[in-house]
Specification:
Elements: E1 2-6, E2 9-13, E3 31-36, E4 41-44, H1 46-52, H2 56-59, H3 74-85, E5 90-97, E6 103-114, E7 120-128, H4 132-151, H5 154-172, H6 176-182
Length: about 180
């Protein structure tokens, strides 16, 4: 078991050893999920269950990080939460971990849901098949970000990883959203 601190609560998630088995989304697939304000899953569609390998019962009330692949840099999720907490939508290419250890790439759009007082009460995410060019471009960036994060502990590692990403973006003359959306 590993313990994950996720949006101010701790949860136990079974350790899954990643494999090199990739599941590729079909062009017509849309993975849909909703979470509460803490990131716990409140809804998941059939395609989500198919690719993650979990049943609805296994997913509901679990943190969305249950499908977080260790090849994904923590800085990417920090950027996501900062963007969402500002009330903005977030786009990203994400490598997810299936229950069987396999993986699948998605192009994700995450948006905050608001209550009548305009407070964030949850999040809605739709994922679709990513472009091959995006994945080829981002794998070396994510790999270096993860290397940085593993060489420097805690928040300092995430900070250094974020600095690396900013350097890459500056060299391309693009913001994060411009880079991500340029691939689709």
């Amino acid at each position: 078991m590993i313990i994950i601190l996720f949006k101010n609560f701790m949860t136990k998630i079974p350790y899954i050893k990643p494999t090199n088995s990739e599941k590729v989304m079909r062009d017509s697939d849309f993975i849909v999920s909703k979470t509460d304000s803490k990131g716990k899953i409140t809804y998941c569609n059939q395609i989500f269950m198919e690719f993650s390998g979990y049943t609805e019962k296994e997913l509901l009330e679990k943190p969305h990080s249950i499908i977080r692949h260790p090849d994904m840099p923590r800085a990417a999720f920090r950027l996501m939460w900062q963007t969402l907490e500002n009330g903005d939508e977030f786009f990203a290419y994400v490598k997810n971990l299936s229950k069987d250890g396999g993986f699948y790439w998605v192009f994700a759009n995450v948006t905050p849901n608001f209550d009548q007082q305009h407070n964030i009460c949850g999040y809605f995410s739709v994922r679709r098949k990513p472009s091959a060019q995006a994945i080829e471009t981002l794998i070396p960036v994510y790999t270096e970000m993860c290397r940085i994060e593993s060489s420097i502990s805690g928040n300092k590692g995430i900070d250094a990883s974020t600095e690396y990403l900013v350097t890459v973006l500056n060299s391309l003359g693009k913001s994060y959203n411009e880079l991500v959306l340029s691939f689709q």
